[in-house]
Amino acid sequence: MRSEVKELIRDQEKAEVSRAERLLERLEQEIAELRRRDAELEQFSHTEDDIHFLQSCQATGGHLQGEFVKISQTVNKVHILEPRIREDFLQYSCQLTLDPNTANRHLRLSEGNRERVQEKRKWFKECGQLLRERRMTYTIMFPAILIVNAPGGQRRFEDLKKAQAFIR
Questions:
Q1: Residue 163 buriedness (CB in 10 A; 0-12 / 13-18 / 19+)
Q2: Where are the domains of the chain?
Q3: Tell me: the pLDDT tens digits for 39-83?
Q4: Are 97 and 132 in contact (CB under 8 A)?
Q5: 146: buried, middle or exposed (CB in 10 Å: 19+, 13-18, 0-12)?
Q6: pLDDT per position as a tens digit, 113-165
Q7: Any bridge partners for residue 109, and if so which?
Q8: 163 near 146, Cβ under 8 Å?
Q9: CA distance 43 to 126
Q10: How many CA atoms lie within 13 A of 22 on its CB side?
Q11: 96 CB contacts (<8 Å, ≥6 apart)?
Q12: DSSP letters of the chain?
C-alpha cells in the first residue's frame, strides 16, 4: 500500500514537472517574440524614411487583422438592436406611479398619481417635470412623450426635445 502511494505521488510529480516545463517553454517563446517585436519597434523609431516606416508598420500589423475579424464576429453575435417600432418599445412599457413630491409646481396629478390633470390654463409657460415614485430597474431609459393639447385639439409638443426647444 505504501509503495502504491509513493508511486502515485511520483507520477503526479512527473506530470506537474512536465506541465511546468511546457509552460516555461511557452513563456520563453513569448518572451523571445516580444523581444523581437521590441527590436523591430526600436529600429522603426530610428527610421528616417517615412515610406519605409509605413510599409514596415503595415507588415508588423498583419496579426491585428485576425483580431479584428474575431472582434467583428463577436459583435455580430451579440446583436442588441435599438428599438425602432412600437412593438420594440412596448417591451419596456410599464405602469408608472408619479411622485407628487417631485412634481413641478405647475403640474397637478390625478387620484392614484397616474396622470397629469388638465388645468384651465391654455398653455404651459414652463416645461414641467416630475419623477417616477419607485426606482426603475431597467438598463435602458427612453424619454417620455409629452403631449399638450392646444385649443382646437391640436398637438403642441410631440416629445420632450421638441417641447424644450419650443420653450427656450
A1: buried
A2: 2-78, 82-168
A3: 888 887 787 777 777 776 666 566 677 777 888 877 777 766 677
A4: yes
A5: buried
A6: 667 666 655 444 455 555 455 555 544 444 444 444 445 554 444 444 444 44
A7: 116
A8: yes
A9: 65
A10: 6
A11: 114, 132, 133
A12: -HHHHHHHHHHHHHHHHHHHHHHHHHHHHHHHHHHHHHHHHHHHHT---HHHHHHHHHHHTHHHHHHHHHHHHHHHHH-PPPP-SHHHHHTT-----B-GGGS-TT--B-TTS-SBPPPS-SS-SS-----BSS----S---PPP---BPTTS-BS-SSHHHHHHHH-
- Region 71-99 average pLDDT: 75
Q: Using CA atoms, how far apart are residues 138 and 95, in angstroms rounded to an integer?
A: 13
- The torsion angle over the Cα atoms of residues 71, 75, 76 and 78, rounded to 10 degrees, is 140
Enter the pTM of the model. Answer: 0.31
Let me know if 44 is exposed, middle or buried by CB neighbors in 10 A (0-12, 13-18, 19+).
middle
96, 92, 103, 99: which is closest to 140 by C-alpha? 92
Q: Which of 64, 128, 26, 106 shows the shortest CA–CA distance to 18?
A: 26
Q: Which of 108, 118, 110, 114 is nearest to 95 (CA)?
A: 114
